[in-house]
Amino acid sequence: MATGKGQLPTMHPVTGFKLGIASAGIKTPGRKDLVVMEIAEGSTVAGLFTQNAFCAAPVTIAKAHLASTTPKYLLVNTGNANAGTGEQGLSDALQSCDVLAAITSVKKDQILPFSTGVIGELMPMDRLLKGLPIAAAALSQEGWADAAAAILTTDTRAKGASLQYGKGSKITMTGITKGSGMIKPNMATMLGFVATDAAVDAELLHRALRLANEKSFNRITVDSDTSTNDAVILVATGASGIIINEESFDQFVAELKTVFIDLAQAIIRDGEGASKFVSVVVEGAVDTDEALAVAYTIAESPLVKTALGASDPNWGRILAAIGRAGLTNLDVNEVQLYLNSVLIAENGARAASYTEGAGQTAMQPEDIEIRVSLNRGQATETVWTTDLTYDYVRINAEYRT
Amino acid sequence: MATGKGQLPTMHPVTGFKLGIASAGIKTPGRKDLVVMEIAEGSTVAGLFTQNAFCAAPVTIAKAHLASTTPKYLLVNTGNANAGTGEQGLSDALQSCDVLAAITSVKKDQILPFSTGVIGELMPMDRLLKGLPIAAAALSQEGWADAAAAILTTDTRAKGASLQYGKGSKITMTGITKGSGMIKPNMATMLGFVATDAAVDAELLHRALRLANEKSFNRITVDSDTSTNDAVILVATGASGIIINEESFDQFVAELKTVFIDLAQAIIRDGEGASKFVSVVVEGAVDTDEALAVAYTIAESPLVKTALGASDPNWGRILAAIGRAGLTNLDVNEVQLYLNSVLIAENGARAASYTEGAGQTAMQPEDIEIRVSLNRGQATETVWTTDLTYDYVRINAEYRT
Asked: How many Å from the N-terminal Cα to the C-terminal Cα in chain B?
């Protein structure tokens, strides 16, 4: 299942950024599973990676390479996460960089590797390596849609976002992402690759990435499980000739956020087993931490999520989640709870104006907003999540088999 | 579903403690749903209550009454939690104390009320009050099994534990509990009532309760949802004439822990949709907090829980959970992971000796132990949990309807 329309939008090419794919048969013969991305000379690159201590081998290598030089190629495979693979995994990830470096005549530390798929299996290196020249030969600025398909795992649809802004000369921003389960990114998502033809120096680019990521990939959860392989990469090729400086930075970040939020929401719309797209908005909190604590406690409550799947306005479970979020001196009589625009609860109880019929009606749409007003401060945060359905259990009971 | 045998053991009566039940029709006509318990003069009573800020009206009243006097009666209903009911809920809980106080000729603050069931509905007071004289008239030292049945909600079986210890004159301890979903007690369980005929002064009794509770009800999770109504009550009637002092305290607590752990594990064995009983043991941790952080992150991971339900030794998901538990400077190469006695992973990867066949075999039993050695300290903790199955989703999508 999945929610929303789910077609890829028009994917504007980004001059200076090419993508090529291959079917290496890493897990499933014949499926697109390997992507090489080429970054033009003079580009800047910023990246954020999972905080999981058991981070995958390619994450370790990609972080080290990004710290030492400006990357020229990104190498992505699906079907195998190369995580929980110890020394052999590190050696395999390095070897894939070595081989692609030889094919493309760059240094191996100019290549960042990324993997997604099953954890704990060794990478079938022979198959992966055979795919590299094929993917490299297919490099094209038009490769976004193919690449979006080639990085998926349990996802049911490709995920992309793209926009152009500016008067006269325009800046283009285009990105793809993947992810459906094991989704609670902590500084990054499963995998996300975004390129722009703006010219942005490395320090500004990293700031922009952090700002956009914080309000997008760091605001989603399917199942509270942070992956071992999360990474998001932002490339600025500069090909548009438009330079981003402190003056134009805010608009650049605003546009970038639009792309990032589109991508992050696409993951939630395709969340494993999802039949609802749920926005949890917490307002009137003392600070961001408090708003997020309440929002995530609601968004990750199995009882709230099963009620959402049943379209049951079981607001008692939402109150119970708010109550256990660990807030200091929470006055429950000040809390107001809305489902979409319907006031459900206030003064510690069902609202006088509330009817079960209104609650039932509010729960019918595919898109649901749960809004909590704590009425004790000025901070507001939004987290996006899914419901919990039979299909989530089926998918995760069957995956690997 | 549920795991293990599930019959009530022999429930030894506790002299000085009586239980009486009635069918008040609070939610379902005809079912046993009301319990009155009588505490003999001279007893001591200790209690622990939910930390949920949205605690139910009866929790608020019970805490206040317990602080002001020694209780003479406990009043428990199932079918309606009287939570999320605001001022009316408090007034209803007080009225139920008033009426029982009149029937039994005690003061209303000598009565502790407890409720469990659906959140957010007003209590049907007429039906509850009509049941009170019936339950009071049925008071008997033999009432444990009936009471164990009358406090259940989505539970599929009654839960009790009972033992006697000592040479010559014996001390008896008997208790009942309920709970199946919304289970992650924070200082208490859904509801637990334990009585002993030992003579224990109030301060010692409270210490004993805290110690036993910490290693039992505070070590279980079905779905990470802390209820609004959790409470556990320990009564010492003194009828055995055996006085517990500092010297005999440790043995008393050890025996009490046995009863409490039996009760807490019974909740997990009857966890909503449970097909596995899972012990998560974390050893070699720096301290208790760290051991519990890892244990709960594993025990509450939807991905680990669905794999357990599928009997799939998907150890990569367990490593991923350990990795996101927030430990400082975790050296993943030091971590060892066992399923029952099978070493699954070490040095950040699958163990050399491990075979998929051995993993599959280890996952077949109903009782599974996941053991993690962090190898960086001396602390060990155990948490008990269930798997996540279709039936959990079904039960919680259907409950309320």
From this structure: 20
pLDDT of A401:
45
Determine what percent of chain A is predicted with pLDDT higher than 70.
98
Beta strands in B208-323 (DSSP E): 220-221, 231-236, 277-285
Distance between A268 CA and the closest CA of chain B, angstroms:
16
* Chain B 12-71, residues with CB within 8 Å of chain A CB atoms: 51-55
Give, in degrees to the nearest 5, the angle at Cα B300 between B381 and A90: 85
A119·B349 Cβ contact <8 A: no
User: What radius of gyration, in Å, describes the C-alpha atoms of chain A?
Assistant: 22
**pLDDT tens digits, B175-191:** 999 988 887 776 556 78
Token pair, residue B221, equals 């999770």
Residue B82, min C-alpha distance to chain A (Å): 10
Asked if A241 reaches chain B (Cβ–Cβ under 8 Å), the answer is no
The residue with tokens 């729960």 is A363
Those residues with Cβ within 8 angstroms of residue B176's Cβ, 6 or more apart along the chain or in another chain: B144, B147, B148, B151, B158, B159, B160, B192, B193, B194, B263
Q: Which CATH superfamily is domain A17-268 in?
A: L-amino peptidase D-ALA esterase/amidase (3.60.70.12)
For chain B, domain boundaries: 17-269, 277-398
Paired tokens of A184: 């609670």
- Asked whether the predicted pLDDT for residue A158 surpasses 80, the reply is yes
pLDDT tens digits for range A33-82: 999 999 999 999 999 998 888 889 999 999 999 999 999 999 999 999 99
Superfamily of domain B17-269: L-amino peptidase D-ALA esterase/amidase (3.60.70.12)
Distance CA A76, CA A112 (A): 9
